């Protein structure tokens, strides 16, 4: 089999310092307005543009194609820092980076330079996979049909995270005539596409996760879903781990600043100043350690996905299979542990300030709310079962799953 993108290129990565120096100033600029966006529910259209302009959305694109050539470990290190600035942006770009990853994998066997040019030009891709309502497991209402020599798509998608900011949709659908599952690459700027900002969650409210309705929308490219990159579920989960890690660091930073500034103390406390109270310091210290652990676990799991990416280019099916299993299991293990760590620390940190921490002006609850919503994706109880089944019975993890209406008993 020929290779357009060999293994040596697949293993290359950019210089860490170069990446940090390039993107950290933008992350800091984003962080400056996060509290206002949170309190006023301002979608980060401007901040997404900043990231596009500096090239962040093409950070994984190979250097020879105009990108930074970052490894997966470097990508998720940067995403942790972005999440510390504003976790909404990390989640909003989740669908984009997944589509980029898919095109990187596809480049082994077919030229994807047309997509790389779009990414380098700042075009981003939003997610449009999930259907709700009466849709049963395995059903796909969104259908692609051929009309007058052109593919057209009709349907409705929910939780279309990031799509309101995007030029493209990574749209999961079925071809009406054949029933084949496909990704329909669809432009958002057309009359047949309507995107609503109607996400009503109590956290992660500025991710642009709403409803997308498609009526006779033109499809630019059909991609067989069976060709999707094999470590995709691990990759998607890593975004949640990076977001949680960033939230943890942001929460520790905010609470320690509040502790430094606090002048009120309790008569039965342990010092004349809050920043000298040993029990308060203990709470901050434990939360800091938990944030550190969350980041370390996330990066370890990212390394496993990097190995899966490299195995794809080695063209050794058994090696690739085993690497995908490791990537999936490690991302699941990370989810189980990190979710608990971050939910605990974003709650326990309130013990450092007392009732004043509940002030709506401070919005300190945003850390827990955002972490709680992220931790609710891909239910942990099922991931724990999958890990256990692998450990005890060597049963391979599920790489692709769906959600839909169950079968009601007739009464």
TrEMBL record:
What processes does the entry annotate via GO biological process terms?
A: fatty acid beta-oxidation using acyl-CoA dehydrogenase
- SUPFAM superfamilies tied to this protein: Acyl-CoA dehydrogenase C-terminal domain-like, Acyl-CoA dehydrogenase NM domain-like
Residue intervals of the Acyl-CoA dehydrogenase/oxidase N-terminal domain: 29-122
User: Which Gene3D superfamilies does UniProt cross-reference here?
Assistant: Acyl-CoA dehydrogenase/oxidase, N-terminal domain (1.10.540.10), Butyryl-CoA Dehydrogenase, subunit A, domain 2 (2.40.110.10), Butyryl-CoA Dehydrogenase, subunit A, domain 3 (1.20.140.10)
Give a GO molecular function annotation for the protein. Answer: acyl-CoA dehydrogenase activity
> Domain Acyl-CoA dehydrogenase C-terminal spans what residues?
242-378
> Is Transmembrane helix among this UniProt entry's keywords?
no
User: What are the UniProt keywords, alphabetically?
Assistant: Oxidoreductase
Q: Which InterPro entries match?
A: Acyl-CoA_dehydrogenase, Acyl-CoA_DH_C, Acyl-CoA_Oxase/DH_mid-dom_sf, AcylCo_DH-like_C, AcylCoA_DH/ox_N, AcylCoA_DH/ox_N_sf, AcylCoA_DH/oxidase_NM_dom_sf
Source domain of life is: Bacteria
One GO location term (cellular component): cytoplasm
Q: Could you confirm whether the keyword rRNA-binding appears in this record?
A: no
Q: Which family does it belong to?
A: Belongs to the HpaH/HsaA monooxygenase family.
Note the PANTHER family from the entry: FLAVIN-DEPENDENT MONOOXYGENASE, OXYGENASE SUBUNIT HSAA, MEDIUM-CHAIN SPECIFIC ACYL-COA DEHYDROGENASE, MITOCHONDRIAL-RELATED
Its recorded name reads: Uncharacterized protein
Instruction: State the taxonomy lineage.
Output: Bacteria, Pseudomonadati, Pseudomonadota, Gammaproteobacteria, Moraxellales
